[in-house]
Amino acid sequence: MNRIVFSVLFCLPVLLLKMGFAQTSVKEPANGVYKISEGVIEKYTPECFREEKADINALKQLSKGNIPFNISDINVSVDSRGCKIAIPLGEGEQLYGFGLQVGSFNQNGLRKMPIVNDYPLNNLGYTHAPLPFYVSNKGYAILVNTSRYTTFYCGSNQPKRKQNIDTDIPAETKLSVEELYQTKVSGRNNVLVDIKGAKGIEIYVFSGPDMLTAIQRYNLFAGGGALPAMWGLGIKYRVKADFKQTDILNAVDYFREKHIPVNVIGLEPHWQTAAYPCSFVWDKAFFPNPKEMVSQLNAKGLQVNLWEHAFVSNQSPLYKPLYDRSGDYMAFHGLVPDFVDKPTRDIFAKHHKDSLLSVGVSGFKMDECDNSDLSRGDARWSFPEMTKFPSGIDGEQMHQLFGLLYQKTIYNLFKEGNQRTYLDVRSSNAFASPYPVALYSDTYDHKQYIEMISNAGFSGLLWSPEVRESNSFKELVMRSQTAVLSAQALFNSWYLQYPPWLQFDKGKNNRGELLEDKEANEQVIRTLFKFRMSLIPYLYNAFYQYQSKGIPPFRALIVDYPEDEKVFNLSDEYMIGESLLAAPFSGNAETRKVYLPKGVWYNFNTNEKLIGGKEYTLKFEYDKLPLFVKAETILPMARPVDFISNDTQFDLTCYVYGSGKTKSYLFEDDGTTFDYLNGKMNIVELRAENGKIMVTRNGKFKSKRFNVIKTIFIK
Amino acid sequence: MNRIVFSVLFCLPVLLLKMGFAQTSVKEPANGVYKISEGVIEKYTPECFREEKADINALKQLSKGNIPFNISDINVSVDSRGCKIAIPLGEGEQLYGFGLQVGSFNQNGLRKMPIVNDYPLNNLGYTHAPLPFYVSNKGYAILVNTSRYTTFYCGSNQPKRKQNIDTDIPAETKLSVEELYQTKVSGRNNVLVDIKGAKGIEIYVFSGPDMLTAIQRYNLFAGGGALPAMWGLGIKYRVKADFKQTDILNAVDYFREKHIPVNVIGLEPHWQTAAYPCSFVWDKAFFPNPKEMVSQLNAKGLQVNLWEHAFVSNQSPLYKPLYDRSGDYMAFHGLVPDFVDKPTRDIFAKHHKDSLLSVGVSGFKMDECDNSDLSRGDARWSFPEMTKFPSGIDGEQMHQLFGLLYQKTIYNLFKEGNQRTYLDVRSSNAFASPYPVALYSDTYDHKQYIEMISNAGFSGLLWSPEVRESNSFKELVMRSQTAVLSAQALFNSWYLQYPPWLQFDKGKNNRGELLEDKEANEQVIRTLFKFRMSLIPYLYNAFYQYQSKGIPPFRALIVDYPEDEKVFNLSDEYMIGESLLAAPFSGNAETRKVYLPKGVWYNFNTNEKLIGGKEYTLKFEYDKLPLFVKAETILPMARPVDFISNDTQFDLTCYVYGSGKTKSYLFEDDGTTFDYLNGKMNIVELRAENGKIMVTRNGKFKSKRFNVIKTIFIK
């Protein structure tokens, strides 16, 4: 890969500033990225396991903004308890991030403990992806590069200071809980960070000039965003855990026959001889000929993804080689491999290569890597925090990094084979932007699932708000709309005999009591899935913008409109790519309010022109997506195909919104290898002018994947 | 006080055993109490702040039991992360404790983090009283004497060990969450303890021979149980936060006029000029003459209790003297006094003495000492864990100890004045048994409130399941029944204009929309309150058993019946004193199942004789308490009075259950001073024989508080 070696960065001028009680070092390892180091740095930080080098060239392209405080005002101190940091916080600043937060959005004034867990506990900050990272609407981001459990006090707690009794804080007696909550805490001036047990720390400050650029800078410093295999942008459908080879082939026939586009089939635990913990060996009773099955599925345009977790059963051929390479406590009777250690990762990966990739498997779902016992009280689901691993890492740090290391282990395998993929994982952390891996969850609150799309975009994460059962067909459709408007459109029927649109109720579904309206329902779902397939060229380009420029393909409105107070707490609308605004429905709503930021917008379904800076009311429709298009956009919508394969060509209808004189781009490559990094790619320019679209290709990729067959101008 | 000085204990023979990697010391500081020390012991443990010396004489009276493992098999190791302990755990052992757990009872197989918090987060173990303490039904208890956040893995997690693939763990693939949950984890053999940041530890092992004795031993080692002022066993009623002096006097007139017994009036924040944080100064606009008001209340037989928290407002006269004696972060704009430091406690206490006790106040409600921000996400409600205090303690340890230290500060004040009291607090910890302080909570699940009565008894804690609003009068009555069957009968109307029995709905209550049946309701409540007043002689003796022998006055059935599998998970029934079994109703139940352990029992209301070892069905009745009496009991029930004062004499009807030949005891003293510790007390023996009760007094207390006026024999 054509990137400058990271280590040369340290030749950049070094500032030494006095902070806290010790010498603090400040460097600028990349354009606009500042690194503060103090004390004894931990052996195992998230950055230690970075998947890619920083994209120095792309970082150079970003304009360098001011940070609204002096970096030297960041105060770091180390004492016997651990490491404390105080980071300036201005009046009125809004903070976001801390990974895949569940149930909160604007983190201003909150105390957050981003600790890995599969279940959010009120507002503690526990999450599948516990990033010690936040971004301010004032155009900068902060990463505390630690794998220790860390607490952030986002502006509410204040150090003691002499108060002027007469003027400072008026005395009053509050008589209700409501009054207490309303108490304004004045003089917020620091984000406080508490890292118990740390003897030193590295802090990265990513400058703006604006919020989006700060996020881009973080993503590019992590190595750039993920570009999944193109087929990964299609629909992924996970079948019931007890499906046998023939059941799967039957399910697939149903999809193809009904022209319900599905691109990936996911198998749940029973492909293995043992789980939990895992054997990683095909169960021949259920799958007599895996290779043949995968070939048959491939022939029908389907990729195969396998569920697993990393805890190794004594029934597994990996048990013996990993015994001395695992922690001193078990998880669910299984060995916990020390993924910090490269040879250990290699042993684990090689088995996958030899037994599973060789059969044609092209993806994995990496489950149970998020210390899920925390919420259950029952401690069996993972290893204790005091576990010791051969590498010297302890259980706490391993918990925070386990999902990251698991991704590294599996993703490397594909990368080495020059094969792109799209994986699933239940935990992640910092520096994960380059992984083509979507997070998923067992939580199932739809409103939170929508908010998590917004939250994921702050922190270099991809999130799939998967669809399982529902309380009604209407709710199922709302969830399906959200799914097709997300980074990964995932239907997880691991406990459902039939697709949920045939019966949304789990019990009835498994008893075969299907809905009467099933054909009408299929028609609705088909429409939504086809919409997803139409959007793929646009989405694929959005992911390329992520990969090459660090722009999150899915992001909260605050990222693009950081000064608009109306979006400070708006988490149920988000941007997709450059120009689409999605506003999914949830609950039992017939209508919802949609706030459009300033500018001119178009209703995607009616083409109605709307002036931004205010709220509109949108009506729920089963087969229409709640989408708005920014003026001066060319939206290329493909004629939907049943699946994407390596040679799929897309016939595009280009919708030109606004004046009719504008440009958009598409990204063209083989969709499945890393050859684009060596130039085998095209940037396809679509230029609208004088009632026509002009298409120009720039690059060395020889085939043509996109044909504009029609253009529609919308004023 | 006639107790042997604690320090002589260390002259007892010392065993030195090799454990972990370092020299471990094992001592027996009191009969059947073993102390393991390893590494560098923390400066601030719960024991550092013990309120009383160990009651060595009482401990000597306890028979010394075997512990079902060798103490030398407790493995302690210290490494760079902290301290780890492995304590043997036998197959089938049942574990209880960890302080005032909310939402769990039998802790077997669970992971528990007893961390101070006002809100339980699923099953993390967060609680108002986070004791690092558990007790086994096999007759021993373990205290890890630390104020650091500590995690206990109660038998589910296992160290790695070589497995015999053929026989050890059968391979299978689980296809549902249910199957996974049902997986039996075999070979449980340790409770694992993880104390991050500790460089050493003290562990106490309290031997049996049985579960009750182990608990007694812990309580006596802590200095014996609490003996509240006798008036504290009456009803406590907290008035609405905005009540002025006249409102309070009016409310009291209502109670007296209606003969609804109330013994203590609690004032909420507005007695002060500022809260939050607190000024600790009377608000003269609301209370023009506090001394006069307290005198008037005293004259009507009422004690006065004041709400406060310990965070000091800049409006307080305590602000200046405590400025340099407080932590470097504030809580809700207030100073956090360093209660570790005795001079700081003394300054705080002296203000209370001079301004509040001098006026006649006889108790306090110590609020907000439980780091309540943890659950809210909003960090304003307490100080950060990284706070530093002048004594050197950090915020984490201070959080765990704050309630304990707050109790010490306030209780000492009363003790020094030879004045007994009964206080309220929202957090506690180990060695708190001697404090006459009841815990309370803002959580309000009635079933959990009942369970917390059972849980409190394991760990030397008193719990008051307070009554606030309700969804129905029936629910209110159920909650009231639980309250009068608890350690403190508390009605907390801090946001209710009228008593909840006049209107259980908060909104309607405050709008003055009272229930139509209000006189009938008053009659029900009067009956329940009068029952409480009748029970006081029995209760007072139960508390004396707690004080002198460490027997919890309220305790789960498992404590008395540790081998009865039917009570392993039974948390909604409990023992009161020696012979009463309570089985409160909750929810909307018309009937409930009551399990009676082996032996002979009597229904308290019908006198029906019941054979134990099985379940009975009990019907809910508004004005009847769900109580059962053990055979061979003399239950002394007093003619109810409207309030207890220093010279109250109790006219007793003795109910003799069973053969008619048995003995019971009462404890007689002035009820309000510590003179009983110097012998000014009587043990009153009630001996039933030949259809009569013989009363014998033993002791130096000159007055007679109990007169048997009637005896009823029940066969």
From TrEMBL, chains A, B:
Residue ranges annotated for the DUF5110 domain, each copy included: 652-708
Domain Glycosyl hydrolase family 31 C-terminal as annotated: residue spans: 550-635
Domain named Glycoside hydrolase family 31 TIM barrel: residues: 226-541
SUPFAM superfamilies assigned: (Trans)glycosidases, Galactose mutarotase-like, Glycosyl hydrolase domain
Stretch forming the signal peptide: 1-24
GO molecular function: carbohydrate binding; hydrolase activity, hydrolyzing O-glycosyl compounds
Keyword Hydrolase found: yes
Residue stretches spanning the membrane: none
Family annotation (InterPro entries): DUF5110, Gal_mutarotase_sf_dom, GH, Glyco_hydro_31_C, Glyco_hydro_31_TIM, Glyco_hydro_b, Glycosyl_Hydrolase_31
Residues in coiled coil: none
Entry keywords, A to Z: Glycosidase, Hydrolase, Signal
GO biological process, one term: carbohydrate metabolic process
Domain of life assignment: Bacteria
Xref: Pfam families: DUF5110, Glyco_hydro_31_2nd, Glyco_hydro_31_3rd
PANTHER family per the UniProt record, alphabetical: HYDROLASE, PUTATIVE (AFU_ORTHOLOGUE AFUA_1G03140)-RELATED, MALTASE-GLUCOAMYLASE
Family: Belongs to the glycosyl hydrolase 31 family.
Protein name, entry field: Glycoside hydrolase family 31 protein
Originating species: Mucilaginibacter limnophilus
